[in-house]
């Protein structure tokens, strides 16, 4: 399996775990707090899932050369990290400011999606199989 395929598989697995946890958190928050938390919880989780997919895309760009040279393009990797941080901050500000969504709901979805990193039983990186 090439490095790019391994990273792509890992990112998909993490994003699916995050999306599942966001849907569970949305169902719980909506049941407990009402419909105002429906969109804000989905939005907060969507921020993390979209940032995971964005960073996965940047990670694939950084590792395209790794199949031939066995070296990761660190400039692209750091650009991805910085742009991911900016993306998260801008989307949080947009949701709480312009869209006027519930900050507690956004935070609940955000935290649920972040837990997807733990529940996916994987991390960014390639592991060697014996």
Topology:
Blueprint lengths: L2 H31 L2 H28 L2 H4 L4 H25 L4 H12 L1 H4 L11
Helix pairs in contact: 1-2, 1-5, 2-4, 2-5
Q: Give the overall shape.
A: elongated
Largest sheet: none
Number of domains: 1
Order of helices and strands: HHHHHH
Number of strands: 0
Q: Ends: how far apart?
A: 13 Å
* Low-confidence runs of at least 5 consecutive residues: 123-130
Mean of all residue-level pLDDT scores: 80
Q: Return Rg in Å.
A: 16 Å
Q: How large is the share of residues in beta strands? A: under 5%
Keywords:
single chain, about 130 residues, mainly alpha, 6 helices, elongated, disordered C terminus
Overview of the molecule:
By secondary structure, the chain is mainly alpha-helical. It has one domain (3-119). 80% of the residues lie in helices and 0% in strands. Helix 1 runs antiparallel to helix 2 (36-63), helix 1 (3-33) runs antiparallel to helix 5 (103-114) and helix 2 (36-63) runs antiparallel to helix 4. The radius of gyration is 16 Å and the shape is elongated. It starts with a helix and ends in an 11-residue tail after the last helix.
């Amino acid at each position: 399996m090439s490095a790019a395929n391994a990273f792509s598989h890992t990112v998909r697995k993490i994003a699916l775990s995050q999306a599942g946890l966001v849907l569970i958190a949305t169902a719980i928050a909506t049941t407990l707090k009402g419909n105002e938390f429906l969109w804000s919880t989905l939005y907060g989780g969507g921020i993390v899932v979209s940032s995971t997919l964005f960073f996965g895309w940047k990670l694939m760009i950084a590792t395209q050369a790794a199949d031939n040279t066995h070296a990761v393009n660190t400039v692209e990797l750091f650009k991805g990290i910085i742009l991911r941080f900016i993306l998260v901050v801008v989307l949080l500000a947009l949701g709480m400011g312009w869209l006027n969504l519930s900050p507690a709901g956004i935070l609940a979805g955000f935290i649920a999606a972040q837990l997807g990193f733990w529940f996916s039983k994987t991390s960014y990186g390639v592991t060697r199989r014996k």
